[in-house]
Amino acid sequence: MAMKNLSFLAVLSLLALTLPLAIASDPSPLQDFCVGVNTPSDGVFVNGKFCKDPKLVTVDDFFMAGLQNARPVANVVGSNVTAVNVNNLPGLNTLGISLVRIDYGVNGQNPPHTHPRATEILYVGHGKLLVGFVTSNGDGNRLFTKTLNEGDVFVFPEGLICYELTYY
Asked: Would the annotation count 115 as a binding residue?
């Protein structure tokens, strides 16, 4: 009987020691930021870019102007995606976030797509959109859809197939 209690206690102790190691999440950053640059002379390679020396970082590394300007729509899908990512806003490197502005034409769409490691938040600045996403197999591939008007916000969960269509 004492041996069973001792074995149980040993297993319980082992689980208590290893459980914190099994909790999955992205690691905490080792520094406040890692402004992305393309030249290796500037530092450590992180997330596909080299980190700019933190002493050389300026406020402009975290700023981008011009997203308020509509872009022309002249393609078969009827939309123009303007991406804001580490390539045009270097301060986004390693922060796990990006942003897009999508301009839609009449009957335009943003074809079905996924964001494997990120949740998408959509804000409607002008017009009306039909949006939705499809859940995974474990949930029966259910379709969630909603008509959005100016000022509305919609969240697309991480990794699911999502779409946006203009609605006139």
From this structure: yes
